[in-house]
Design brief:
Blueprint lengths: L6 H24 L7 H14 L2 H17 L4 H16 L7 H15 L1 H19 L2 H11 L5 E7 L2 E7 L5 H17 L2 E9 L2 E8 L4
Antiparallel strand pairs: 1-2, 2-4, 3-4
Length: about 210
């Protein structure tokens, strides 16, 4: 004859299925349905299939979105900044301490000569103009890549183009060289320099559409 369990323990066993059911119900209630476009949902499913499970992938994405929000940013801003760094790297830029860079420019100007440095910056501008391919891309790139430039604008009126560049960090030498960089880039993009006003930290250049462009 089997030993009979005390009534209190027997009742506890009977409650186990009920407890499990309640836990499952609680888990279901804690999950939320996230609405998404069908094409986007399908794409996420494809990515998740390569990386693990849909559950893990979606939760990882949401976790990073919350993390970005805690920094006062959005995932779009973070991804745009990452793309910016990659584009700058592909374009031949490298991060360099500002103080060292400015000092090297000044010393190079003194020892290598004004003409050599001026030609170097002009040729670099030409290369950069070819890399950007069009005026809008060039303007956007200068604003994004040259962190020491506080204001850069390109305005067009008819066949004439006006470029304004301001920076409190530019020395007189650096301002002159940067104006040559801009001149080289605009030449490749189809504009000839008509006149310029260049002083420490301030560049104003006027261009005209190249003949035959």
């Amino acid at each position: 004859m089997k030993d009979e369990l005390p009534p209190d323990r027997l009742e506890g066993r009977r409650d186990i299925p009920k407890i499990v059911q309640e836990l499952r119900k609680e888990t279901r209630e804690k999950r939320k349905l996230l609405a998404a476009r069908l094409s986007l949902a399908n794409k996420i499913s494809e990515i998740a299939a390569r990386r693990g499970t849909l559950y893990d992938y979606v939760n990882d994405v949401l976790e990073q979105a919350v993390r970005a929000e805690s920094l006062g940013l959005t995932l779009k801003e973070i991804l745009d900044d990452r793309l910016l760094l990659k584009t700058a790297k592909d374009a031949g830029f490298s991060t360099f301490p500002e103080k060292i860079f400015y000092e090297l420019v000044e010393r190079g100007y003194e020892r290598l000569g004004k003409q050599w440095m001026s030609n170097l910056w002009y040729e670099t501008g030409e290369w950069y103009g070819r890399y950007c391919e069009d005026l809008a891309t060039f303007e956007d790139a200068v604003n994004k890549f040259f962190w020491d430039v506080s204001d850069f604008k390109v305005s067009q009126e008819g066949e004439y183009l006006t470029v304004t560049c301001l920076s409190s960090k530019f020395s007189e030498v650096y301002t002159s060289l940067f104006s040559r960089f801009l001149e080289g880039a605009l030449k490749v993009l189809g504009y000839d320099l008509v006149e310029g006003d260049v002083s420490k930290g301030i560049i104003r250049l006027k261009f005209v559409k190249s003949k035959g462009e």
